[in-house]
């Protein structure tokens, strides 16, 4: 019984960590949606077509 109880506690802790990481991912995703995306860096065409 003690081992089973310990396993249940470990699973609860893992679930809590998973929930926290999911919340972080969601908050980052929301921030990306609301903020305008950064402009793409200019492509250096000279490196492709130069010389």
Structural description of this entry:
The chain is mainly α and 51 residues long. It has one domain (2-49). It has 2 helices and no strands. The chain is elongated and about 70 Å long. It starts with a helix and ends with a helix.
* Tally of structural domains: 1
- The mean pLDDT is 71
For this structure, the quaternary state is single chain
Q: Helix proportion of residues, in percent?
A: over 70%
Number of helices: 2
Shape: elongated
Strand content: under 5%
Report on the biggest sheet.
none
What is the CA-atom radius of gyration, in angstroms? 23 Å
Low-pLDDT sequence parts: none
Structural class: mainly alpha
Order of helices and strands: HH
Total E-strand runs: 0
Q: Termini distance?
A: 76 Å
Keywords, separated by commas or semicolons:
single chain, 2 helices, mainly alpha, 51 residues
Short description:
With 51 residues, this protein is mostly helical. The protein is built from two helices and no strands.
């Amino acid at each position: 019984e003690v081992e089973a109880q310990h396993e249940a506690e470990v699973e609860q802790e893992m679930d809590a960590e998973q929930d926290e990481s999911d919340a972080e991912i969601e908050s980052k995703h929301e921030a990306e949606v609301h903020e305008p995306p950064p402009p793409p860096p200019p492509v250096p065409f000279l490196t492709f077509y130069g010389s």
